[in-house]
């Protein structure tokens, strides 16, 4: 299933996305706005960058010397790390931070500072997740380690009945997985899958990946361990704490948009065709939350507007709030769903419920109770 070519029937109900794109284009033309980032995203990036870099500078310069001060710095860095990922890195790697593509290219490399590998992220997120949202065997965001079950089409194990309790612990390990083994696993997987250009420039990418990891560990672990006036294990502990907090924030934000009771998990037919065109598919598999949460939206790079982001990944997140009304109204005009939760708490509750449902039978798919696809319960 992983190598199956997925086909979205564009000829089926194309009116919705064509009409919506026209309305969105008119919004930007009438208001004389660019679809790229503006001063808001610059301010967000500076703020999140300060949260990530200043605590590090305070520790290495000797301003912060106490154990608990060092721990506090790592915690703040964890929040800054998640913020930079959601605000600057995310938009830059979607090529929408700036209208200058060179700026986007170099700011996209900020993922190196967070311990990740930009080429892997762009393929996994931009191509696979956005292209094949919630499609088993293609969207890696719903294919975590075996202890977690994010899709009704994956094998069901007895341990999954408790995943709504223990999943949150594993969420905190997400970015730690990035900086240790996951990037190496992915680069090898993409080469074996024949993904261009990984299959042609594997040695170049592998060398780049190894050097990036060595530099990251040198600056984030070795240097602090040599300089800080605390035992080395406090440095290691702080590093792990930073990643744990960042991973918990990032995973929770992303999963509350796709692994929720309203989400569907379409399976392609034998010829690879899915039932709906790509735009309608995004409506069926994605959900917004906290549409009026201005502070939350500012802090998480507008990722509470996931429906808008999935329909318009070529538009910066700073505009999602303004175009969300157009998306909702147009979806209603065409009798299509527009899923959202009023608050982040409601989204968390929905995700918790979905985890519980996916851990047993029956499961909630697209708002209806259904049995999963004949899982083998072990």
Structure overview:
The protein has 378 residues and is an all-alpha fold. It has 15 helices and 4 strands. Helices cover 58% and strands 3% of the residues. The protein starts with 14 loop residues before the first helix and ends in an 8-residue tail after the last strand. The longest helix is centred in the N-terminal third of the chain and has 27 residues. A two-stranded parallel sheet has the order 1-2. It has a two-stranded antiparallel sheet with strand order 3-4. The C terminus is likely disordered.
Distance between the termini: 22 Å
State the secondary-structure class. Answer: mainly alpha
* Biggest sheet, spatial arrangement of strands: 1-2
**Which stretches are poorly predicted, pLDDT < 50 over at least 5 residues?**
371-378
| Multimeric status of the protein | single chain
Taking all residues together, what is the mean pLDDT?
Answer: 92
Large-scale geometry: globular
The largest pleated sheet is described as: 2 strands, parallel
Gyration radius (Cα, Å) is 21 Å
Percent helix among the residues? Answer: 55-70%
- The total strand number stands at 4
Order of helices and strands: HHHHHHHHHHHEHHHEHEE
Number of helices: 15
Beta percentage is under 5%
């Amino acid at each position: 299933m992983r190598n199956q070519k997925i086909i979205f029937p564009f000829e089926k109900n194309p009116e919705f996305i064509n009409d919506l794109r026209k309305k969105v284009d008119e919004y930007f033309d009438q208001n004389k706005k660019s679809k790229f980032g503006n001063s808001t995203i610059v301010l967000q990036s500076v703020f999140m960058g300060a949260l990530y870099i200043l605590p590090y500078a305070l520790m290495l310069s000797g301003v912060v010397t106490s154990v608990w001060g060092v721990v506090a710095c790592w915690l703040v860095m964890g929040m800054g790390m998640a913020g930079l990922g959601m605000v600057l890195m995310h938009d830059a790697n979607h090529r929408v931070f700036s209208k200058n593509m060179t700026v986007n290219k170099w700011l996209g490399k900020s993922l190196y500072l967070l311990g990740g590998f930009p080429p892997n992220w762009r393929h996994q997120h931009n191509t696979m997740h956005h292209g094949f949202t919630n499609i088993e065997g293609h969207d890696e965001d719903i294919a975590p380690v075996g202890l977690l079950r994010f899709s009704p089409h994956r094998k069901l194990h007895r341990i999954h009945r408790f995943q709504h309790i223990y999943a949150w612990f594993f969420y905190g390990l997400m970015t730690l997985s990035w900086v240790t083994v996951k990037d190496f696993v992915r680069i090898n997987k993409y080469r074996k899958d024949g993904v261009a250009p990984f299959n042609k420039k594997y040695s170049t990418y592998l060398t780049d990946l190894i050097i990036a990891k060595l530099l990251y560990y040198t600056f984030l672990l070795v240097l602090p361990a040599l300089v800080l006036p605390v035992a080395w294990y406090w440095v290691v502990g702080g590093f792990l704490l930073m990643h744990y907090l960042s991973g918990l924030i990032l995973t929770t934000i992303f999963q509350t948009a796709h692994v929720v009771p309203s989400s569907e998990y379409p399976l392609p037919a034998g010829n690879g065709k899915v039932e709906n065109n790509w735009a309608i598919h995004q409506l069926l598999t994605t959900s917004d939350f906290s549409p009026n949460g201005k502070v939350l939206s500012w802090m998480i790079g507008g990722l509470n507007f996931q429906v808008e982001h999935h329909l318009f990944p070529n538009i910066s997140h700073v505009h999602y709030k303004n175009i969300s009304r157009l998306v909702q109204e147009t979806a209603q005009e065409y009798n299509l769903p527009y899923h959202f939760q009023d608050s982040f708490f409601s989204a968390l509750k929905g995700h918790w419920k979905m985890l519980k449902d996916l851990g047993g039978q029956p499961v909630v798919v697209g708002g209806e109770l259904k049995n999963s696809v004949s899982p083998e319960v072990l």
